[in-house]
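User:
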Amino acid sequence: MNLADVTPPIALGPLDGRYRPAVAPLVDHLSEAALNRARIHVEVEWLIALTDGTVVPGAPRLTDADTAYLRAIPGSFGADEIAELAAIERETVHDVKAVEYFVKRRLAAAPDVPVADGGPGADTVLPTVGELVHFACTSEDVNNLSYALMVQGAVRDVWLPAATALVDQVAEMAREHASVPMLSRTHGQPATPTTVGKELAVLAHRLRRQLVRVDRAEFLGKLNGATGTYGAHTVAVPGADWPAVSRRFVEGLGLTWNPLTTQIESHDWQAELYADMARFNRILHNLATDAWTYISLGFFRQIPVPGATGSSTMPHKVNPIRFENAEANLEISSALLDTLASTLVTSRMQRDLTDSTTQRNIGPAFGHSLLAIDNVRRGLGMLAVDADLLADDLDHNWEVLGEPIQSVMRAAAVAGVPGMDNPYERLKELTRGRRVDAEGLREFVAGLGLPDADAERLANLTPATYTGLAEQLVDDYLA
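Assistant: Predicted structure:
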């Protein structure tokens, strides 16, 4: 059996196979079919713009029924239309030209669609405006606008809501565990205590900043002809203000107009967007590796899924697979986004076709990120904080109080208290590389000769209470 001949076709990649449910919403925005639907939408809207009575002299005015019929063409673009367009492209061997012929077919067929069926009726002028389809356009006029609309929709309707829900989840966990003390690890070694919530809040804050940047992204578009000069436009219709027409049209699509381009829109906005998304990915990767580490330390317990298996041979295992899966997908997504950003900003002179192939990988770049977001959300939902183990860990590391003790001694020395010489060195000698218990530290503090208030404050301090403003920071700054 040749698997390539199996029907229905077997997916080559995991996003369209194993992980399809997690990324399916992107198909409506970043698939090849979505690209062709967007192209049809742009062609239709350009035709409507050219027949408004102000641009092309003598062009017939369209009725409301004509306009509705035209806009229904991309709106009803489904399996049959995808197959029809593919058949046309096999003849043209040119994807955008196939779209032009597809739209012209619909114009020719318009009189056969009665008003009762949503058509313009026999008296429609649509068959007479066929030559205004793709008028004065190069393929890239249609493509750049289509990709801008597609990426805009994928960001705003799919990726950004999913990423925002994840950050909200992390922020909620931070608030829930804001007061749960936890021993820090710097360089993997016991360090100044913090709280579980404060550490999660840092990650939520970092991720949120990137979401703000993505949310503010500009999606640029152009429509200015084969080399960006409006050459064909001005020769065909010299009386029109073509930059104004172009700007009105691009902004009417909900995009930002780019006034100066070569044959292609420069794609700089894509590079900016993908850099921000890649940065979000890498911060999320940091969250995944920290969660994995906290699980390995026992700080987080994983709630077993009924019926699930952690190992084919070790029955006890509950593996942190959601975070491991996320790590891998974030690395793949970031690599693709980096490649997109670095490749798309360069085009030989007026243009080359490297961007055509490159942009067809926007979907996988988004898909691996979206899959990772889904995995992290599911992984976080299976975690429980082991407060007892955290408390035990803190109680076995009293030496971390060497920091506040020497800091109190420093302040006392500045205030003129005698006997406070070399506080750092004395605490280093007492604690570095050694285990020190509560009794040993309190005995040391009692023999220092500190003012009573300072001595009492240190005597009451424990690793679990030495968390500074951690809880307050979560409340005050985690928006």
